[in-house]
Amino acid sequence: MTKLLYQTDSYLREFDAVVTEIVGDGAVLDRTAFYPGGGGQPCDLGCLLAVDQEWQVTKVKHSDGRVVHKLDRDPPPVGAKVIGSLDWEHRYALMRTHTAMHILCGVIWRDYGASVTGGQMEPLRGRMDFEFERMQAELVSEIEEKINAEVAAARPVSVQILPREEAFQIPDLIRTKINLLPPQITEVRVVTIDGLDTQADGGTHVENTSEVGSLRIVDYKSKGRINKRLVVELEEVAQ
Prior knowledge:
The protein is of the alpha+beta class. It has 3 helices and 15 strands.
């Protein structure tokens, strides 16, 4: 089974690994920092390096319980030692964006009691749907002011991996309308924004809300009688 390095260290940019299996045009590694996508967050990109060779990682995905790194050419053989290197600009933008989505979710749950009905993100832009009956410009402006206040509050962001039974003792752990955690999951990764939000989550995040930067709600729309969408954009920051 692949050790998922990103679960405990989102800032790891390079890592050593060994190829354990070939699946089509992809490689399975004994350990990886590449996030395979999920929860609305796209997968990581980057490359694998071995001696004087390089393979571009064009996609990472779950497949039958394995994390498969799809490559741009024939994979290295089983047993090969490689160095994995993330496209850090892509990853860090997604980390900031994912934490921004948790800030948005935390503010709306805390202040308006609305559940999440869906979400998706790309680097520096994300959308989230909530159980709101009405969404007006005044409310959108109010929410935008509140989420930027949480960025300015510089709240620490932490990760824990807990036994399922212990994790589900946390009130309001699941903010989505439907609990998407399969019953066979025995350990739950919990992401906490100190004083604002605690959720079961598998994605990558920054360590402090201040890293998210300025947020703008650039669009809002109705997606049903009790389903309203907010679209958030982040500013670019120097790496």
